[in-house]
Design brief:
Helix content: 25-40%
Number of strands: 11
Oligomer: single chain
Radius of gyration: 61 Å
Strand order of the largest sheet: 6-11-7-8-9-10
Structural class: alpha+beta
Number of helices: 7
Distance between the termini: 159 Å
């Protein structure tokens, strides 16, 4: 025996004996390298070519592994190897398993820009709408400011009190008001007489007891007209000027009191 053959024999003797040893010996002795037997970390892969069928006995890492009949497995493998055609495999042959899967990404649809003609139409429509709005706004009349003030009636000619009171015709009634922004009845009389240097109490009930009471026949324009809960200024000829009630404005109007008290200051 040559030295090379003797070295190969010693290497074979040192190899560990596994369940594949019997199969490998069978392949070397009777099958004449009829198949490629590859032992991998995940199990046993047996590949046959030609008309022969391929069989695999994968190894599973579970409790059932200890119950596999290795003798029956070896017998099936020998039968498959015996029927397989002769295949020559290089000693450095490797098994390559494709694990990667190509992924194809479909891009999101691109939103098309609006057509230039449509964009121009929308712009023209917006311009016309804005122009119509501006025209309507310019044509709309501004709200008229309330007219404040009026001439005193002829019956009150020569009365400074009535002349001053007439300046505030049109001022709205405001409960508790004491200025041209809004008056109540006693706030109005107090404000008018204050411009002549005459001080009056704030309420109508208190104004009842100032000055001198005169008869209706002797009443003159500028006298106070008092009735329970209300006070006004006499304008002559059965007329008066006052701040009537909420929702109304200062105005000249006919007297309505049935038995008023006239007070001269």
């Amino acid at each position: 025996m040559s030295a090379r053959a003797n070295a190969a024999r010693h290497r074979a003797a040192r190899r560990p004996v596994t369940p594949l040893t019997e199969i490998a010996q069978t392949v070397g002795a009777g099958a004449g390298r009829r198949a490629a037997v590859v032992a991998t970390a995940g199990g046993l892969i047996m590949t046959t070519f030609g008309a022969g069928a391929a069989q695999a006995a994968p190894a599973h890492h579970d409790a059932a592994t200890s119950t596999v009949d290795l003798g029956a497995l070896a017998a099936q493998a020998r039968e498959a190897l015996a029927a397989a055609p002769v295949v020559t495999v290089a000693q450095n042959a490797q098994v390559q398993v494709e694990t990667g899967v190509a992924v194809h990404v479909t891009p999101a649809p691109v939103r098309e820009a609006p057509a230039p003609a449509r964009t121009a139409t929308v712009a023209r429509t917006a311009t016309r709408t804005a122009a119509r709005t501006a025209t309507a706004t310019a044509a709309a009349p501004a709200p008229a400011a309330p007219s404040i003030g009026a001439p005193a009636p002829a019956s009150a000619a020569g009365s400074a009190v009535v002349a001053i009171a007439a300046r505030y015709v049109g001022v709205p009634y405001v409960s508790g008001g004491t200025s041209p922004a809004g008056f109540d009845c006693s706030g109005f009389t107090q404000y008018v007489f204050a411009q002549l240097g005459i001080s009056l109490p704030r309420t109508s009930s208190a104004q009842r007891y100032v000055g001198t009471v005169v008869s209706a026949a002797d009443a003159q324009p500028g006298d106070l007209i008092w009735s329970p809960g209300h006070v006004a200024i006499y304008a002559g000829n059965g007329q008066m000027i006052d701040a009537p009630r909420p929702g109304k404005t200062i105005q000249f109007r006919a007297m309505w009191q049935s038995n008023p008290v006239f007070i001269r200051l």
